[in-house]
Write a structure and sequence with these properties.
Tetracycline Repressor, domain 2; 0% strand
Length: 289
């Protein structure tokens, strides 16, 4: 019974429900690769791979950061520093999650399986990047950018320019909102010697950098149809317009000296953005039959 309780604690600790945060971009890469909806077997293994990948990454991040989290008032009540679960159990959970990713990739195609070591290197390596570079936000972006590329590979068994452009957009999107998220830990990071854009450049400049990263994301999304031979129609552009609105909203409610609305900006706007773009792109394919 205690094992199930520990597992529930770990799933709460890594915010398992936020796996859906990156899943829409994986589905978007899948849609583009299949030029519609692929067979359900492929969809199922993509979902399993995504769950394994994110669970491994988040579990490892909590494990590596447990001492830092214990010293930070904002994160001291997380499961590991609070003693609600042991490092050994979390370590086993990470290993199991990695194996889930590898097994799911093996059920898709040889290229998907061959790329899993590189994916895991990025997913797990992010946890150390904040200790050595102010641009760790880009490493986190790279980790999530693997979602559309991995889904494309799962469907087609190759790599093309289309998923790479979409991955670039995801990288800049994630890096942009992670810069915003890092604002709330700026003072703590300064004292402990951790690195981030807010630490290096200050609050106001960090807001501008986040905005430029998101502008780059929108540019790549606008260029995506040019790199997709079948083309994308009105549904996709409605999805794109929603991204513009949601990113604008996000940057309007996070102001210098006022981070009180950061959580709504981070979770609500960004979670909706990914889902909105995927759904409207799906509508676009559906309308074209």
């Amino acid at each position: 019974m205690s094992r199930f309780k520990n597992l529930r604690t770990v799933l709460e600790m890594i915010k398992f429900e936020h796996t859906l945060f990156a899943l829409p971009f994986a589905f978007l890469g899948m849609l583009l690769a299949a030029e519609g909806w692929p067979e359900w077997r492929v969809v199922g293994w993509i979902v399993v791979a995504m769950v394994g990948a994110r669970s491994a990454a988040m579990g490892f991040n909590r494990l590596v950061d447990r001492t830092i989290d214990a010293a930070n008032p904002r994160t001291a009540d997380r499961a590991l520093p609070a003693g609600h679960v042991t490092p050994t159990f979390v370590g086993l959970f990470v290993v199991a999650s990695c194996l889930v990713l590898v097994f799911a990739a093996s059920r898709l195609n040889p290229l998907a399986l061959a790329l899993t070591p590189f994916a895991l290197l990025i997913l797990l390596g992010y946890s150390y990047s904040k200790r050595c570079t102010h641009w760790s936000h880009l490493v986190l972006g790279l980790a999530l950018a693997g979602a559309p590329v991995g889904a494309w590979v799962a469907v087609r068994g190759d790599i093309a320019s289309t998923p790479l452009v979409l991955a670039g957009a995801v990288l800049l999107w994630v890096a942009g909102f992670d810069v915003l998220y890092a604002l709330q830990d700026r003072e703590f990071d300064l004292v402990t010697g951790l690195h981030s854009v807010p630490v290096r450049f200050g609050e106001v400049s960090a807001l501008w950098i986040s905005g430029l990263l998101h502008l780059g994301m929108l540019l790549l999304l606008a260029l995506l149809p040019r790199f997709y031979p079948p083309g994308l129609g009105l549904g996709y552009w409605i999805g794109f317009a929603g991204c513009v609105v949601l990113l604008t909203y996000q940057h309007r409610i996070v102001q210098p000296g006022d981070l009180s609305r950061l959580d709504p900006a981070f979770f609500q706007a960004n979670g909706l953005l990914a889902t909105w773009l995927f759904l409207w792109t799906g509508v676009d394919f559906w309308l074209r039959g």
